[in-house]
């Protein structure tokens, strides 16, 4: 059934560490190798067809098959030459689009990945404030950079990966997501040294955790009171959650800096930092914070991103995805109530997940119906995940060893671990959702 994937994996092990080029692609006992994508579906090298909810881990807002006008614009740009190393009009147009729609953004600097964006944002925050310390959330992922690959808490911490000097952890302070008291304590103790608080406004790399009421607002207050910057990492949520205004628009809190990636590249490598002109102009060549990249503002990527976002704006893509997402999450909630009441359905808009939590509420009356929103009146409120540690305490091994394979064998491609979200695209249909719900019923 998966013979070609197994053969490719054996070959890959000889020339690639672990047989994959990103550890999230690893799967037990080996991953499926993809031959092509069609709409909302993947076809692997063995000819097996799947409804795809990985969607390249988020970038493919429109699915695998691009609308004709989007594909045509990309091909036209490619025919003019892949890149030039000098400015182009399309990078200005994409920056204008982002600045026009995202509340906090006046200027944008394009880079080549989410990691590059968050790395540059940390450097910018430190350069702008003249301070060294960064507060991050336990369980947040801000790319493969030394300053945020830190684990522990505000009292004892260290690098979360080999190869990172312990000195980096001295200036990075992890606190639990959704814990106001922890952040207040850190600011009380060392507020004069804190350059920024960096977080995903909705925890996205630990199974999707919604902020509790007032949490983001309090972070905004604390950073302003102490002269620090608030940095939203919207690499994942940008132009997925909250539509064109992103998660910050949905939650009504404006950061000083925002990092972007994934969707704004339309399926091509991309990253960006956006914020007020006062902060952004600390970047070279205007200011003294160095940032540069040969492939930054790549014209093919810029064209793909701009045309994707224009298409989304002009074709009610976000309304469609919100409706389809609510339908899917509501259906999952019904299944969970009946078959696994201890599990928690999470997500909003075009993101979703079922977290294999371990405690069931006494009743489901009045619960969050289309994904956990951390509503205090919900009977699950005291049991639903509030931070990364809560998600990590769920039954992650069952997902990776059993559930992922059960769903794959039923033609549904999910992420290989419980921590990564699932993504809907404009190419998904109600029939896809119906088939997915049937597969969940059988696999759970």
Write structural notes for this entry.
The protein contains 14 helices and 16 strands. The chain has 444 residues and is of the alpha/beta class. The protein folds into two domains: 3-65 and 317-443, Aspartate Aminotransferase, domain 1; 68-314, Aspartate Aminotransferase, domain 2, CATH 3.40.640.10. The strands form four sheets. It has a seven-stranded mixed beta sheet with strand order 4-12-11-10-9-5-8, with helices on both faces. The protein has a four-stranded mixed beta sheet with strand order 1-2-3-15. A three-stranded antiparallel beta sheet has the order 13-14-16, with helices on one face. Helix 11 packs parallel to helix 14. The radius of gyration is 21 Å and the shape is globular. The protein starts with a helix and ends with a helix.
Quick take:
With 444 residues, the chain is of the alpha/beta class.
The chain-level structural class is alpha/beta
The overall pLDDT average reads: 95
Termini separation: 22 Å
Fourth CATH level, the homologous superfamily of the largest domain: Type I PLP-dependent aspartate aminotransferase-like (Major domain)
Helical fraction equals 25-40%
What's the domain count?
A: 2
Radius of gyration over all CA atoms, rounded = 21 Å
Estimate what percentage of residues fall within beta strands. Answer: 15-25%
CATH topology of the largest domain: Aspartate Aminotransferase, domain 2
The biggest beta sheet is recorded as:
7 strands, mixed
Low-confidence runs: none
Order of H and E elements: HEEEHHEHEEEHEHEHEHEEHHHEEHHEEH
Task: Please identify, by name, the CATH architecture of the largest domain.
Answer: 3-Layer(aba) Sandwich
CATH class bucket of the largest domain: Alpha Beta
Number of helices: 14
Shape: globular
* Total beta strands: 16
Strand order of the largest sheet: 4-12-11-10-9-5-8
């Amino acid at each position: 059934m998966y013979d070609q994937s197994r053969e490719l994996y054996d070959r890959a092990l000889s020339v690639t560490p672990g047989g994959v080029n990103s550890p999230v692609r690893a799967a037990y006992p080996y991953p499926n190798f993809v031959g092509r994508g069609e709409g909302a579906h993947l076809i692997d090298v063995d000819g097996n067809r799947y409804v795809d909810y990985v969607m390249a881990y988020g970038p493919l807002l429109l699915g695998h098959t691009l609308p004709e006008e989007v594909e045509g614009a990309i091909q036209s740009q490619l025919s003019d030459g892949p890149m030039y190393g000098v400015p182009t009009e399309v990078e200005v147009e994409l920056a204008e689009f982002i600045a026009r729609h995202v509340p906090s953004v006046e200027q944008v600097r394009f880079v080549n990945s989410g990691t590059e964006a968050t790395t540059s944002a940390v450097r910018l925050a430190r350069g702008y404030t003249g301070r060294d310390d960064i507060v991050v959330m336990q369980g947040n992922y801000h790319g493969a950079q030394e300053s945020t690959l830190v684990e522990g808490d505000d009292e004892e911490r260290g690098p979360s990966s080999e190869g990172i000097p312990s000195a980096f952890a001295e200036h990075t302070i992890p606190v639990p997501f959704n814990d106001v008291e922890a952040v207040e304590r850190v600011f009380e103790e060392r507020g004069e040294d804190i350059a920024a608080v960096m977080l995903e406004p909705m925890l996205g790399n630990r199974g999707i955790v919604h902020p509790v009421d007032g949490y983001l607002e309090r972070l905004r207050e604390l950073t302003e009171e102490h002269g620090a910057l608030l940095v939203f990492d919207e690499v994942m949520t940008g132009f997925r959650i909250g539509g064109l205004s992103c998660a910050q628009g949905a939650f009504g809190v404006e950061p000083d800096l925002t990092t972007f990636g994934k969707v704004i590249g339309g399926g091509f490598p991309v990253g960006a930092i956006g914020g007020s002109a006062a902060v952004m102009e600390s970047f070279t060549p205007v200011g003294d914070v160095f940032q540069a990249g040969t492939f930054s503002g790549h014209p093919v990527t810029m064209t793909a991103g701009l045309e994707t976002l224009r298409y989304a704006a002009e074709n009610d893509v976000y309304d469609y995805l919100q409706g389809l997402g609510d339908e899917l999450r509501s259906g999952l909630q019904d299944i969970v109530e009946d078959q696994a009441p201890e599990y928690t359905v999470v997500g909003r808009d075009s993101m979703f997940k079922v977290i294999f939590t371990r405690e069931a509420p006494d009743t489901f009356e009045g619960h969050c119906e289309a994904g956990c929103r951390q509503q205090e009146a919900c009977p699950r409120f005291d049991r639903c995940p509030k931070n990364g540690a809560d998600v990590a305490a769920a039954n992650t091994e069952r997902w990776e060893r059993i559930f992922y394979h059960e769903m794959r064998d039923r033609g549904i491609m999910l992420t290989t671990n419980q921590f990564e979200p699932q993504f809907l695209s404009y190419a998904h249909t109600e029939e896809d959702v119906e088939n997915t719900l049937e597969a969940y019923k059988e696999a759970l």
